[in-house]
Amino acid sequence: MDSDAMVEEIPSVEANVKSGKMEVLGNEQDGEDTLMWVEKYRPRTLTEIVSHKNILETVTRLLDANKLPHLLFYGPPGTGKTTTILAIARKLNGPKYQAMTLELNASDARGIDVVRTTIKSFAETQQIFSAGHKLVILDEADAMTSAAQFALRRVIEKYTTTTRFCLICNYVNKIIPALQSRTTKFRFAPLESKLIKRRLMEVVEREGVNVTPDGLKAIIKLSGGDMRKCLNVLQACHIGYDITNEENVHLCTGMPLTRDIELILGFLLNEQFSDAYQKILEFQTEKGLALNDILLQLHPLILKVKFPPEVLMFVLSQLAELDYRLANACNEKIQLSSLVGIFKIAREKTLKYSNYTKKKKKK
Ligand SMILES: Nc1ncnc2c1ncn2[C@@H]1O[C@H](COP(=O)(O)OP(=O)(O)OP(=O)(O)O)[C@@H](O)[C@H]1O
Ligand SMILES: [Mg+2]
């Protein structure tokens, strides 16, 4: 095989700009204005990445010592896993990093054939590169079939002198133990609020966003430590409204406002079963709220209700069940009646508990 033909076979990183989460590695300056902010403000270097201080320090040390191991990055969405590996690719191979990197993500087939053909042939092309390590990035590796993961074990070992592999996933338990043991694992935790805030403020200043402090707070709260979500909501709100305040952030995301949730909690705690069900259903329809969003927002408020500890445990475990059922697309109306039922039982339990403690005190 001549070397040109081999280079042809290697899908460039640019060729992988296929999925919704586009990876802009080349032509970074082109069309900046039309770029989504998540891409426009994707850090290019390790020093630009927010949070994960320990991971970044360790990786930098390993890179400086030219001792980068195979990597496994895992953690929830929007925490910088893909960003970090792309920054590593740049640091590892400088300007020629595109030719030295093979990135496969969820939009590419990742069955056993890909391991046997694409990945293997990329790893084998060592003779055309003089120095440095090639990098194979398997983004969203938890979607790889287990046959492909088993096949990868051998490939990783065979080409370890020339190629480094980085597996990225949300759920580490979907990666077979044999691959986990061949890689150094790093967990990307949700980003801290104060770090998100700092980063968002930079974007706000550069883009001239008219944001209020409560708007910023609402974005950070709704994101749950997901930087991608923060930037997307900020951009959507900036485009859709003159001002990015709490109300507009909630309208933009379809998430209920705190005062809406307080109202719903009031119905749950004070109304009879059928009244509570009816009122919440009407409110939900009027405002266009999804039950799982209500549940998500209800959770922190429930922790503040003065339920006896046993009752609180009961409510929380029942809500977890409800959340699971909603995630499995069960009927919303039935689940709403279940929610109202949980609170009805909780109120009865609370009553029994307080009668019991009163009797005990009398004795
Ligand atoms: N730690 C971070 N510092 C700065 N920006 C970040 C960070 N994490 C995420 N972002 C922003 O969010 C966007 C998405 O991040 P990235 O693609 O790295 O997430 P991910 O962890 O790979 O998520 P997923 O698991 O969904 O693939 C980036 O383009 C960047 O703008
Ligand atoms: Mg990613």
UniProtKB/TrEMBL annotation:
Main location: nucleus
Domain AAA+ ATPase stretches: 67-194
Subcellular location: Nucleus
Keyword list, A-Z: ATP-binding, DNA replication, Hydrolase, Nucleotide-binding, Nucleus
The organism's place on the tree of life at top rank: Eukaryota
Signal peptide interval: none
This protein's GO CC annotations: DNA replication factor C complex; nucleus
Pfam families reported for this sequence: AAA, RCF1-5-like_lid, Rep_fac_C
Phosphoprotein among keywords: no
GO biological process assignments: DNA repair; DNA-templated DNA replication
Single GO MF annotation: DNA binding
Family, per entry: Belongs to the activator 1 small subunits family.
NCBIfam families assigned: PRK00440.1
Protein's UniProt name: P-loop containing nucleoside triphosphate hydrolase protein
Species the sequence originates in: Hirondellea gigas
